[in-house]
Amino acid sequence: MYNKIIKLIIAAGIIAYAVYQFTEGYIGNGIMFILLSLIFVFLYFKNEFILLAFLRLRKQDFNGAKKWLNKIKNPESALVRKQQGYYNYLHGIMVSQSNINESEKFFKKAISLGLSMDHDLAMAKLNLAGIAFSKRRKQEAQKLLTEATKLDKQGMLTDQIKMMKQNMKRSAGPNQHYGTGGSLRAQKRRG
Questions:
Q1: Maximum separation of any 2 CA atoms in the chain, in Å
Q2: Rounded distance, CA 100 to CA 97, Å?
Q3: CA distance 185 to 189
């Protein structure tokens, strides 16, 4: 993996060589080198390991996605800010299967760094709402759920949001049992 600055230096070098090819009269070579430099510019904005991790995650291969993400040794220097957000987002998804506290940290960091697509941000907030709800922080979960609903403009998460709202309504009911209430001693006194 190349550092983000090295990718730009390589792209600039290839463009300089393409300009040299144009001045020498080799137009085809110059066009080919311009197209080659665009690959490095693309990889500056979209990290290759994050793209490969997304492909593995799409196939439900969590171990493969984790393997690709672990190849990024120092995310702060190797990734642009939005890429760091997606790095944490992917780690949050993978860790959510086993450790809720750690996944909450990853999702919060991903949201603070920023995600470029609204449905990814909605998914992160929906996961945070589920974590907050499981930790009995219902107001925070409700707030995150409404934010996720606003961000889900294409309706990709409507089923999950409806299911979360139904679960929240079910648990919002009273916890006491109807009928004879009180302790066993109070029931004996009455009866």
A1: 106
A2: 8
A3: 6
Amino acid at 69: L
- Cβ-in-10-Å burial (0-12, 13-18, 19+) of 87 comes to buried
What confidence tens digit (pLDDT) does each residue in 6-24 have? Answer: 888 999 999 999 999 999 9
Distance CA 146, CA 126 (A): 9
Q: Which residue is it, tokens 């974590």?
A: 131
What pLDDT, in 10s, does the model give residues 177-190? 555 555 566 666 66
Closest by CA position to 42, among listed 53, 32, 51: 51
Q: What is the mean pLDDT of residues 36-40?
A: 93
CB 88 within 8 A of CB 69: no
Q: What is the pLDDT of residue 173?
A: 57
| pLDDT, averaged across the chain | 83
Structure tokens at 152: 């889900």
0.85 exceeded by pTM? no
Q: How far apart are CA 56 and CA 45, in angstroms?
A: 20
Q: How far apart are CA 46 and CA 83, in angstroms?
A: 7
- CA 188: distance to chain centroid? 56
